[in-house]
Amino acid sequence: MTTTVGRGTPLLTADDVHLSFGETTALRGASLHVYAGEVLALMGPSGSGKSTLLHCLAGILTPGSGSIRYGDRDLARMSDTERSTLRRGAFGFVFQFGQLVPELTCLENVALPLRLAGAGRREAQRRAATWLDRLEVADLAGKRPGQVSGGQGQRVAVARALVTEPAVIFADEPTGALDSLNGELVMKLFIAAARDTGAAVVLVTHEPRVAAYSDREAVVRDGRVREQEPAR
Ligand SMILES: Nc1ncnc2c1ncn2[C@@H]1O[C@H](COP(=O)(O)OP(=O)(O)OP(=O)(O)O)[C@@H](O)[C@H]1O
């Protein structure tokens, strides 16, 4: 499945999205545009709906009403198989918890999305090793996630998200467990992905220092979004 999106056309669009968890309304009319080639920071108070919006954009949660479109396709109208093909092929994820497979080594974890996309073992591991090296965790290749620190695991997770060169990278507090140097390294790799492959990077952060690397900010408050106009 390919969706061709011209420059200046949003790659992803949330339109008037509402979503409740039982009695709790997390999103109440959230609208947002995400463009190819940009790093977009989602900011806002705790509990305002940032992670929920990110999960909706990624097709992990389905809005109660409103729509999420990837190009001109409504995610809710896709079959489960189409949505998971999209998630596996076009999307990369860096989430805070439970992202690495504990039974696999760090190298195998990073190679996994390539293997799922059909790459041979040797080629997948060669490319995975390149990304571990870029994240400066090449020495952890043979270790399992349980044997590395939280910050090291987070960098392995970033390598795994970037290895397939996805069209959209979703990241929830991707620098949360990192010191400032490693946080900077991760942000520079996100910016490189946006500039080199035209990826859109959507990241949730509380840190102004991290948001300063973004091209644009959107503030989520009480389940609604105020987004900065794109500069083009
Ligand atoms: N699985 C869930 N079940 C019930 N309520 C939830 C669930 N996930 C989120 N919520 C509620 O929805 C609202 C929005 O949560 P969300 O995690 O999107 O906020 P956030 O802006 O990402 O917060 P934080 O910055 O603290 O991570 C909150 O009131 C939260 O308690």
UniProtKB/TrEMBL annotation:
Q: Name one GO cellular component term.
A: plasma membrane
Output the CDD domains linked to this UniProt entry. ABC_MJ0796_LolCDE_FtsE
**Which terms does the record give in the GO molecular function aspect?**
ATP binding; ATP hydrolysis activity; transmembrane transporter activity
Does Oxidoreductase show up as a keyword for this record? no
Question: Which UniProt keywords are present, listed alphabetically?
Answer: ATP-binding, Nucleotide-binding, Transport
Q: Which PROSITE patterns match?
A: ABC_TRANSPORTER_2 (PS50893)
* Origin: domain of life: Bacteria
Q: Could you tell me which residue ranges the ABC transporter domain spans?
A: 12-232
Say if the entry is tagged with keyword Protein biosynthesis. no
InterPro entries annotated for this entry?
A: AAA+_ATPase, ABC_transporter-like_ATP-bd, ABC_transpr_LolD-like, MacB-like_ATP-bd, P-loop_NTPase
A UniProt-annotated Pfam family? ABC_tran
PANTHER family (alphabetical): ABC TRANSPORTER RELATED, IMPORT ATP-BINDING PROTEIN
Q: Report the protein name in the record.
A: Putative ABC transport system ATP-binding protein
Query: What species does this protein belong to?
Result: Actinoplanes campanulatus
